[in-house]
Amino acid sequence: MKSNRKGNAALIALLVVIIIVGIGAIVMLLAGRNSIDETEKFQNSSKGGNNQVTTQVTQVTEPEKPKEVNLYCKKDPSFKQTNIKGFTAAASIIGDLDSDTILAGSSMDSRCYPASLTKIMTILVACENIKSYDDTYTFKDTDFTKLVEEDASMAGFKAGETVPAKDLLYGAILPSGADAAVGLANMAAGSEAAFVKLMNQRAKELGLKNTNFTNVSGIHNPNHYSTVNDMLVIMKVAYHNVTCRNVLNTFDYTTSKTSQNPEGIHLTCLLGGRLQGFFIDKNGNGENDDTAKVQGGKTGFTNDAKSCIATYCYDSETEHTYVCVLAKCASTEQSISEMMSMYEKYLPGSKAKIPDATTAAAKTTTAAATTAKAA
What are the pLDDT digits (tens) for 81-136? Predict the structure, then answer.
């Protein structure tokens, strides 16, 4: 009996060890070996420049397979032609991703140059084609030649530096790094030219009616074009890819440490910085206390494209996510201001008072006629 007690105790101890090891293995498996960690997400910028940033972590294992979603949104029964005083955008659209409807827009199918909005498609195609987010690419001197000549924006990677895919994704979007976009292309397809073919193939699969790419970063080319309607589709598909959505909604990220960048590269989102001092005043009270918040997106600029922007906005009142895309705005600040006006004027239930361009023009004409008559 004494011997049996010792044997039972040993058996129980062994079982406990096996259970603990098993639980640990399951936890590690669920966490995922190849994961992308989202660092800080920006929800909105408040008046006075205080960013409302919440720290959230989302983990995704292997790159996702493309998801089939309803693509082109239909015009809402109450669709409105964009009509805002002082509006400079040559084309505009605001869509509801939950009802698949377009709330307002203008020149939605007119060709425009997407500039760095191109990189939204770049990271989408990369996420759908690379094997693992831990795969790496080593930069070559030749990767930077054309980018330097075009004075393209860079994330800060260097020749000889070996960088994982997840760092390249954030590098392409947050600081709009053309170097990161080229790195993704070379990693996923062997060359930028081969990757551009994948981008155009994906555009055809999505049924994009007026989009063609010639490079991965948005460097100007007459044959590199899109429309705000097509960009809405790209934003919609990217939203349904968890990793793309995380990257586009992230404010702050630091890349892996390398010998070329011993502390890593601290990346901050250009859009997040430009949102400082702006907020959606949906209830029209002049305070930053509304339910609608800009979650993320991308800006772009070239001399030919002018300023363009594509953003996500979540409204906790309707519990819907919206997308606004503007093309060829007069300036970067104007693109931000006009985006806010689009949300304030056309979000369901908005009480903001955004003056119409036609009303303002009519008042000017009436005033001029009155002056002429008095003279």
Answer: 999 999 999 999 999 999 999 999 999 999 999 999 999 999 999 999 999 999 99
DSSP 215: S
Residue with tokens 């994961």, as numbered in its chain: 35
Cβ 305 vs Cβ 113: under 8 Å:
yes
pTM for the predicted model, two decimal places = 0.82
How many domains is the chain built from? Answer: 2
Q: How far apart are CA 195 and CA 184, in angstroms?
A: 9
Q: d(Cα 297, Cα 236) in Å, to the nearest integer?
A: 11
Q: Is residue 366 part of a domain?
A: no
Distances (CA, A) of 207 to 95, 210, 230, 360: 18, 9, 9, 39
Whether residue 332 is contained in a domain is answered as: yes
Verify that 257 and 191 share a domain, yes or no. Answer: yes
DSSP string, 345-363: HHSTT-------HHHHHHH
Structural element, H or E, at residue 243? helix 242-248
3-state helix, strand, coil in the chain (%, to 5): 40, 20, 40
**Do residue 322 and residue 197 come from a single domain?**
yes
- Long-range contacts (CB closer than 8 Å, 24 or more residues apart) made by 364-367: none
